[in-house]
């Protein structure tokens, strides 16, 4: 597994999990900001992404995250998109091992699924399969980011992943969805999304999630789905504020 570890080894640990098709580099600005503030910031590449070999699966991703958490004293988990789904699932299964949870641009695993949501989930994989491989990177980059820097990063990482691998990873993401109306996140929670995030049901689903949990929602101006890349300083500041609390 490819990973980076910044900041003092005895600082409160924060583990960053990236989205489908991306890599740990998407959190470089946040990791540096947190390390500068005295936190231990750990980023890594999920299997089949970036510098980590292997084939992605939900089970393997949970095992890999567990191996990192096992080295640490109750870290805070930060996840973007797929990484947010993964982090939610880990917290639900292992609440005593985690200090807090930050979710950026991700669906609510335990949230209710409307008929429209279920139709979208059924059609998303086949729809991605129809996009020519040569265009998939640019399509996903434009859907994920609104700034030139964000789109440049997204185009690079999405273009590097074979189309079939990306479609398979996206399909595996849906396995984390587990509607449970009684469930509430058992650790401090921060929800964050870009104000221009038009992917899935993030724009409508995350406010509902915040209301269910009784927590605030940080809406990042000038940012899309990968808000931490589109607006790195604003996301870093929100993370530091949450950690300080």
Structural class: alpha/beta
Largest sheet: 7 strands, mixed
Give the overall shape: globular
Helix content: 40-55%
Low-confidence stretches: none
- Tell me the Rg in angstroms: 16 Å
CATH topology: Rossmann fold
CATH architecture: 3-Layer(aba) Sandwich
CATH superfamily: Alpha/Beta hydrolase fold, catalytic domain
SSE layout and pairing:
Elements: E1 3-6, E2 13-17, H1 28-36, E3 40-44, H2 58-69, E4 76-80, H3 82-93, E5 100-104, H4 115-130, H5 133-144, H6 148-160, H7 163-173, E6 189-194, H8 202-213, E7 217-220, H9 227-230, H10 232-244
Parallel strand pairs: 2-3, 2-4, 4-5, 5-6, 6-7
Antiparallel strand pairs: 1-3
Helix pairs in contact: 1-10, 2-3, 4-7, 5-6
Would you give an account of this structure?
Strands 1-3-2-4-5-6-7 form a 7-stranded mixed β-sheet, sandwiched between helices. The protein has one domain: Rossmann fold (3-Layer(aba) Sandwich), CATH 3.40.50. The longest helix has 16 residues, at 115-130. The chain has helices at residues 28-36, 58-69, 82-93, 115-130, 133-144, 148-160, 163-173, 202-213, 227-230, 232-244; strands spanning 3-6, 13-17, 40-44, 76-80, 100-104, 189-194, 217-220. The model has no long low-confidence stretch (mean pLDDT 92). The chain starts with a strand and ends with a helix. 47% of the residues lie in helices and 14% in strands. α2 (58-69) packs across α3 (82-93), α4 (115-130) packs antiparallel against α7 (163-173) and α5 (133-144) packs antiparallel against α6. It is globular and about 50 Å long. It is an alpha/beta fold.
């Amino acid at each position: 597994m490819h990973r980076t570890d910044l900041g003092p080894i005895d600082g409160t640990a924060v583990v960053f999990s990236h989205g489908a098709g991306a890599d740990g580099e998407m959190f470089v600005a946040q990791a540096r900001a947190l390390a500068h503030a005295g936190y231990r910031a750990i980023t890594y590449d999920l299997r089949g992404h970036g510098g980590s070999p292997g084939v992605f699966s939900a089970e393997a991703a949970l095992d890999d995250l567990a191996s990192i958490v096992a080295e640490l004293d109750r870290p805070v988990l930060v996840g973007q998109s797929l990484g947010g789904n993964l982090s939610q699932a880990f917290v639900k299964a292992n609440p005593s091992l985690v200090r807090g949870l930050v979710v950026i641009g991700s669906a609510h695993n335990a949230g209710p699924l409307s008929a429209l949501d279920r139709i979208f989930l059924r059609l998303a994989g086949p729809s991605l399969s129809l996009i020519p491989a040569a265009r998939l990177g640019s399509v996903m980059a434009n859907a994920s980011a609104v700034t030139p820097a964000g789109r440049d990063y997204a185009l690079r990482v999405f273009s590097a992943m074979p189309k079939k691998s990306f479609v398979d990873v996206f399909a595996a993401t849906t396995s984390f969805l587990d509607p449970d109306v009684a469930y509430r996140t058992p650790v401090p929670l921060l929800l964050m999304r870009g104000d221009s995030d038009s992917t899935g049901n993030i724009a409508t689903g995350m406010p509902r999630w915040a209301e269910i949990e009784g927590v605030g929602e940080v809406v990042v101006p000038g940012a899309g789905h990968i808000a931490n890349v589109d607006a790195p300083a604003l996301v870093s500041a929100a993370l530091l504020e949450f950690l300080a609390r």
